[in-house]
Amino acid sequence: MPQVVNIAVSILFDGLAYAMFLFITSVGLSVTMGLMGFVNLAHGAFAMAGGYIVVTLTRTLGFGFVTSLVVAAVAVGAASVVFERGLYRRLYKSTDLEQVLLTIGLAFMAIATATYFYGPIPRSVPLPDWLQGDVNLGFRYFPTYRAFLIVLGAALIAVLWYAFERTNIGAKVRAAVDNRRMAESVGINVDRLFTLTFAVGSGLAALGGGLAIQLLGLSPSFAVLYLVLFLIVVAVGGLGSLKGTLLAALVLGVFDTAGKYLLADAGGFFVYAVTVVVLLIKPAGFYGRE
Amino acid sequence: MRMIGWLGLAALAFTVGGTAQAETVKIGVVLPFSGANADLGHQIDKAFDLYVKLHANDIAPNKVEIIKRDEGPPTGAQAKTVATELVTNDKVQILTGFVFSPSAIALAAVVTQAKVPMVIANAGTAWITNLSPYIARLSFSMWHPAYPMGAYAHDKIGCKTAAMAYTDFPPGKDSTEAFKAGFEKAGGKITEAIPMGSPVQVPDFTPFFQRIKDAKPDCMYVFIPSGAHAAGVMKAYGELGMRKGGVKLIGPMDLIPDNKLQDMGDAAIGTIVMSHYAVDLDNAENKAFNKAWHDAYGEDSYPDFMSAAGWDTMHAIFDTIKKLNGKVDDGQKVIDTMKGWTSKGPRGTVTIDAATRDIVQDEHAMEVVRKADGKLGVKILDTTKGVKDECKELKVGRCGS
Amino acid sequence: MAASDIMSATDPGQVRERAAEYLLKRHRFRLAECLPWLLAIAVFFVFPDRMTFGSQVLVLVMFALSLDLILGYAGIVTLGHAAFFGIGAYTVGLAAARLQWTEPISGLFAAAIVAGFVGFITGWFLLRYRGLTLLMLTLATAILLQETGNLRSDISGGYDGLPGLAFKPLLGVFDYDLYGHTYYLYALAALAVVFYFVRRIVYSPFGQALTGIRENVRRMHAIGSPVHRRLVTVYTIAAAIAGVAGALFTQTNAYVTLTVFDFDNSAKVMVMLILGGTGRLYGAFVGAAVYMVLEDYFSKLSPTFWQFGIGLVLVLTVLFARRGVLGLFESAGQYLTERKKP
């Protein structure tokens, strides 16, 4: 295989895997911010919680990796409802600034709590054999875990797309993102819808957190370390847009990987440079409402 | 006028302390207890605590009082504020800890002005010890492992060509510069040097490593800070099948910190590092150290090279207190006493170079292997005795001043 | 008297009169305003050994004050304010390290000019945007500056910074002591000057126009107010002040690294300001001081878990003191005066 093609394949593959992680972790944030305008800086804390649940389940209780991912997503999704009902709900009508203060406070508390229970050392998960090593796709080898990420991401996108575009609830969510007042006046219970999407979004974040352990490692500061990245994906994609979040994740993932591969000296620039360019041209992101 | 008054009072407070029989020496410990690098701080803190607990009687009837403060993020600013206050407000007589080089750099002027000794337990930027006559370093300079690794990689591992990949901040540049100096001197050729972003960036190294894999050098020298990034290196290296692809992974000990090694899995096997410490280092002091560590912190907790340096740091401080019989108010005297200090510790024989106040220690080439008990460990391939900081010996850049 | 009292008047002349009276009354110096300053001076005498920490608090008060000008008064939400703090910090740092320009007070002016200039340029481009877009654009600007600095670490010193900066004695006379007394008084004096300036702005017609933009930008457009120009102006001023704070930061630390551009720095100052209360001048004082003192207290209590305490305080503030700590005091004051009335 010619070198150029080889490089392009490498970049696309790695970029795609990274993009899937970005998408899975950020999509919930995008929908909840689009739906309620709620700035949830504790989103990373939910992802971190998912990661630690996976660690406990696999390391201490001997669950399988995939089972643990599912359990973590469901558990965090359910727990997030408690937070939503108990804390977030009180601040729907407040300013963004108060929401920032509340959620950053929660993130801080989450960091300290995780340190208390798991210590500051970065944790890892034992992967099953079938996720280790590399896989031969005929023309070359690819890391199995990343291939798994891509397949899982694609499956999730299909499910989410169906739920968002083809079901009654999805239609309600879209209506509420488009025009909340109108949606309420035709009898859609936006509050309840928000609780639901919040739970799904947090569950997905937890899934992303679990998947990220193998990719980025997991330590208590995970709760805030990658928050900027998630916010960038949301902003570039456009608030509340599934399509937008996906496109943003793909563009940022592939550009970041390409930048690191081809121009390592300036590798750190790419994500931010792309962000600035996209937002200057399309202030509301790819598919956001102007 | 007021200021002079306050200073006078403070000076008085310093001298009054020296009259009683049994002294309580106040030691300020500044380590990152929170934040993204908290695990590094805890590795050293555990060693400090362990030493103080086991050796409290060594300095009887004198005692130590340890005041711990959070070093915070690697900005220098917070470390400077808390350490200055440890001196001005808490009246500590010795400062120790310091994981991040910026903390030590920011504080150099303060300790010179305050005449308080600063005993560094980690911060590895080579030229730090030149900044103040009150600094002594018990850990290492980036050059300690990296420079001898250059010659070893070329002569023994068989690297004719090597690519370097590093975290784009001063220790990374230091380490690769040192490796390059040693490697090229031995006749090797550096194919490329890839900065992998700043320490705060996402630790996914796949794109960088993919690039190196495609370029096929014999070896890949990697420097990353020994936190979450170390695991990231091993994952990317393993996932890409680089060993199969004929690219050997080499580097300093930061690649395989003992407390993270078990999690790294088979990908780590075959990695060769230059290091002054490993849990598997075969000497009596290290065996005792490991036993004490496991007794105190459990079987799943491992000390690493930072803990070993922390242990020796406290050891040097205790020996100094003992020698001066607790009278450590004169910072100059403390530093003078430490000069030439030598002892056996977990790392083997370590000495503080009287001329540079930096550490002299043995460096070992080690290979990661699967041990008989199924755990990962290292096999010592080669040992160089009494390695000094070559940066200062060769007077490279800032080390020369 | 509240704004509604002005509007309730029927005669236009009366409206104007009442409005003038209202503005004058707001502008008038209140005795309570002495309090923070007296407190700052008292701290100097009561805690002489803690002045290093004290000067850091003052620097952050100034930084938060500059953010209040744009966030609290003009309603510009930014997550990249550290950019200007960093530029100010590096202006004096580079001037001292590379040009041997070590006179401190002129350094503050230089920092103000450079940071203000960058504020003007970026503000002119970015202030067309609002909301999340603006948030991300300002954040990216700060990080791009940081990356540029790291790319040219031969100049900036990178993450190891510019060490051993030696500044000339203040006014040629007062040298810097270990205890940081000079620094503290120096920072306090600088803060007082900046504060006077900010106070003038806030109570000027320009300041009122800013509040108008914050409250209803469409109406300001409709009445022909040059919204963009005013926003850029205040953004430039705030950038300059943040630059001065950054310069003080470098001078008091005699050291600066690229971490001054960190996202954490932008986020932290915002949290401080919201904690104290936005749009009320002294919110910056209360917020920065309360946050820093709590952080110091908690981190002494437990160097490992102190973030839990800070987090809890933030959550409780949102739940029980909606308008920040200062808002809480205001409500208490209101409650008391209302009770006194028959």
Task: Report on the architecture of this protein.
The complex is a heterotrimer of chains A (290), B (401) and C (342). Chain A has 290 residues and is mainly alpha-helical. Helices cover 73% and strands 2% of the residues of chain A. Chain A is built from 12 helices and 2 strands, in the order ααααββαααααααα. Chain A has helices spanning 3-36, 43-60, 65-86, 96-118, 144-166, 168-178, 180-185, 190-216, 222-225, 227-237, 242-262, 269-281, and strands spanning 134-136, 141-143. Chain A starts with a helix and ends in a 9-residue tail after the last helix. The mean pLDDT of chain A is 88. With 401 residues, chain B is of the alpha/beta class. Chain B is 41% helix and 21% strand. Chain B is built from 13 helices and 14 strands. In chain B, the strands form 2 sheets. In chain B, strands 6, 7, 8, 9, 10, 11, 12, 13 and 14 form a 9-stranded mixed beta sheet that branches. In chain B, strands 2-1-3-4-5 form a 5-stranded parallel beta sheet, with helices on both faces. Residues 1-20 of chain B have low confidence and may be disordered. Chain C is built from 16 helices and no strands. The A-C interface holds A 33, 87, 90-91, 94, 96-98, 100-102, 104-113, 115-116, 120, 228, 231-232, 234-236, 239, 265-266, 268-269, 272-273, 275-276, 279-280, 283-285 and C 71, 77, 125, 128-129, 132-133, 135-137, 139-141, 143-144, 147, 150-151, 263, 267, 270-271, 274-275, 278, 304-308, 310-315, 317-319, 322.
